[in-house]
């Protein structure tokens, strides 16, 4: 029965409830739309950040394999047992997704830290170049300047900053910037190092500026 304005007299009656208009269905529809939007990030319907790693997926599958729907062992799976198994599986998946999120967050945090460190070291490069020149001229034998150089080297070592570019080292165009090639043969090495290069872990902060030369040969040959 309906009122003159077209509204049912008992809107709570299941017969008068529109399945497509219930809050649960609206929530489900909203979730589907959100999933569809996320699916645009990658062909398989998942964004790159939400994809679970193969190792984590294998671990999750092992955990799900241990779920026994027949909890009481009576040989029959009741509706309650089936729902319990489904909720347990959902919990395992949420746990795996959270672990994946934490690992991704840790990687991003470490990336931010490394970028900040690289920025600080970049600001110190002119000072390091001056200290290298002072060492070449013999000005770091004793005195306050040598003490400053030693302390700075210890600080950079603690930050895992390493210098590279040594005469005789094999030339690598990925990390060496060649100003001139003076080599005659096929084997190319660093003949002169005009400016050292620096790396922070696997990240190249600055390439080494070099002159390419030939390897030294044994005078006896």
Automatic annotation (TrEMBL):
Top-level division of the source organism's lineage: Bacteria
Keywords: Chaperone, Coiled coil, Cytoplasm, Stress response
Recorded GO CC terms: cytoplasm
Main location: cytoplasm
Keyword Nucleotide-binding recorded: no
Region described as Disordered: spans on this chain: 1-58
Gene Ontology molecular-function annotations: adenyl-nucleotide exchange factor activity; protein homodimerization activity; protein-folding chaperone binding; unfolded protein binding
Subcellular location(s) per record: Cytoplasm
Nucleotide-binding among keywords: no
Pfam families: GrpE
Coiled coil: 77-104
Database matches in HAMAP family: GrpE
Role played: Participates actively in the response to hyperosmotic and heat shock by preventing the aggregation of stress-denatured proteins, in association with DnaK and GrpE. It is the nucleotide exchange factor for DnaK and may function as a thermosensor. Unfolded proteins bind initially to DnaJ; upon interaction with the DnaJ-bound protein, DnaK hydrolyzes its bound ATP, resulting in the formation of a stable complex. GrpE releases ADP from DnaK; ATP binding to DnaK triggers the release of the substrate protein, thus completing the reaction cycle.
Family membership noted in the UniProt record: Belongs to the GrpE family.
Protein's name in the database: Protein GrpE
